[in-house]
Write a structure and sequence with these properties.
It contains 5 helices and no strands. The protein has about 160 residues and is mainly alpha-helical. The protein is rod-shaped, with a radius of gyration of 27 Å.
Length: about 160
Amino acid sequence: MIVTQSAGAVQGSFYDLWYTVATFLPAILAAVIVFVIGWIVGVILYRVVVEIVRVLRIDDALKSAGMNEAAKSAGFDLDIGRFLGTLVEWFVVIVFLVASLDILGLTRVTIFLQTVVLLYLPQVIVAALIIILGAIVAEVVRGLVAGSARAAGAHGAN
């Protein structure tokens, strides 16, 4: 009698578990598909940003501004295309991750990612663009000042 009741309870627990898994499985599959699509879109946008930076020759401008030497002395290699591409890629991946977590019903994680990560990342991208623009403007101004000093006959123009 006790064995029959115990077996019935275990069987009922397994039935409930499989029912829960079977009802949640479509949501898991949809979330995985959305996340994989986001990853693919992120990689494509990474490549697009790298090519745009290469076509605009922003790396060449920064190298002529001396930013490459400063970065190497700091211990890392300066590649603005890869840096901006990585920021854009991860922004897109996190946006699709939020959508995936929303499909799964994980609202607290979704709220955290939306309020903390997604609102902070655009500020990082804008800050990086401002630094790049500042380095390009600094190179142009340096050239103007050095040229003006040479024209004025200053010996230490550079």
